[in-house]
Amino acid sequence: MLCLALFVAGLSGSCAGRSLVLHPTFPEGGLLRDAVPLAQEVLDGLEGMYAIEGKAGPLTGLVVVHAAPGTLSLFAAPQDAYAIMKGGCIEGGKRVVFEGHWRHPTESDTGLIQLFVEQPEIVTAACTKTPLAATPSTITFSGATGERNDMPLDAMRLSFDRALVDAGPKFLVAAHHGACRTIDDCGASENSVETIKMVESFGASVVEIDVRLTADGVPILYHDETFTPRLSRGTYCHGPVSEFTFAQVRALCTLRYGEEIPTLEEALTAAINDTTLAAVWLDLKIPEAVAPAIDIVKKYNALAVSMKGRKFVAVIGMGETEIVDAFVAAGPPDVPCLVELELDDVRRADCQMWGPRWTRGPMPDEVATMQKEGRSVVYWTIDEQIYVDLFLTEGKPNGVLTDRPGMVLQRFQTLGTVPATSTVKP
Fold first, then answer.
1. Neighbour count for residue 176 (Cβ, 10 Å)
2. Alpha carbon 22 to chain centroid distance?
3. This model's pTM is above 0.90
4. Cα(364)–Cα(360) distance, integer angstroms
């Protein structure tokens, strides 16, 4: 009854997710309908920190302009706001346009955004697929934003401020469960193949996914111990995950927004073939998942090595003592691993990474100890800007796991220190 009452009242609350979240699109495909898509190297050449002038929805101050495969994204710190766009050449190569939407991740506020590259020489280079001749400091965008499905009319401008810090593999933004939480409705459910394919556009270079076993021993992606409407749908999709065979999962269950619940192998196949992600962090939820996960990680890490130029690694993550025990009992598995417990647990499992929970505080001495031992440190899970800033400046980690990857990327580019070493070597 509560969900029905909220719907009738036109409010944005929901029993299982944030209702009335609009995913705005330009009518008839906008200007991109007839555009020639931009080459990835053009998108990469537009990256940087930019200053915003004018009204840009929730985007204010200095924003990160971030290139992902096929998209250009803007990330601001206030309210964790972001915009995700695609770009192309129009009018016979005389103009470059970007169109997409902006969003508050924790609210239903959203709208359209349209930007144009101002410099003719950059437009010419972009549309003739030649190297950008202009220096980055000359790049500016002008355009407008709007509210919801209204056409963009609020003028804005982006001016290049400085280049992004090249952290390489030394600092990694890790997305928690995918591009966003299911409740945030950014266009896909958490722990889906679809969200893995989206995650780079949201600012992450690593994705964390949750692994459980079906009754017949198939590793699948699902966070909770039990199928419930919080994360999944299906009239008969209720009860412990471990009591469903994989065939029953496929027949009876979907994720919250209709996607199939994927196998671990399907997820890693998508990560390798359909993204440029540096790593996938497997959060094993039960000890019984250790042995099959080790075999699958070996298979897909070897596959990545065999693919010329593909830098990728799958990492086994362990957050419970029983799971570490099962990993150690398996003998030296020769797979990358991360432990979320104590320093001695990291050493006992001989893992390259430590993942301390943020509620323990920055613990700079322990972080420095792990890094001196040649290990990397990735805090989990930090979503508030005040804490992201604190942990970046006091802890100086190798990464942060977050539900707000774009905001973490913006804060790292503003405040972060690139660690001296990293054990994540995709």
1. 26
2. 20
3. yes
4. 11
Q: Is 416 within 8 Å of 165 (Cβ atoms)?
A: yes
* Axis-axis angle for helices 321-329, 290-306 (nearest 10): 70
Q: How far apart are CA 49 and CA 286, in angstroms?
A: 42
Give the model confidence (pLDDT) of 242-278 as tens digits: 999 999 999 999 999 999 999 999 999 999 999 999 9
pLDDT exceeds cutoff 60 at 74: yes
Residue 138, pLDDT score: 80
pLDDT higher than 50, residue 320 = yes
Q: Please answer whether residues 244 and 226 qualify as being in contact, where contact means their C-beta atoms are separated by less than 8 angstroms.
A: no
Per the prediction, the chain carries an average pLDDT of 92
Q: What is the pLDDT of residues 36-60, one digit of tens each?
A: 999 999 999 999 999 999 877 788 8
Pairing type for strands 82-90 and 71-75 reads antiparallel
CA nearest 180: which of 15, 361, 18, 372? 18
Cβ partners under 8 Å of residue 159, min gap 6: 50, 51, 53, 140
Give the single-character DSSP code of 303. H
Q: What local confidence, expressed as pLDDT, does residue 54 receive?
A: 84
* Phi and psi based region of residue 299 (left: phi greater than 0; alpha: psi -120 to 50; beta: remaining): alpha
Q: How far apart are CA 240 and CA 39, in angstroms?
A: 46
Evaluate whether 63 touches 75 at the Cβ level (below 8 Å): yes
Task: For tokens 């997710």, name the residue.
Answer: 17
Tokens linked to 32? 């991109």
Identify the helix (H) or strand (E) that includes residue 388: helix 385-395
Q: Which two tokens stand for residue 393?
A: 């400046």
What is the chain's Cα-based Rg?
22
Q: Which of 333, 319, 327, 331 is nearest to 288 (CA)?
A: 327
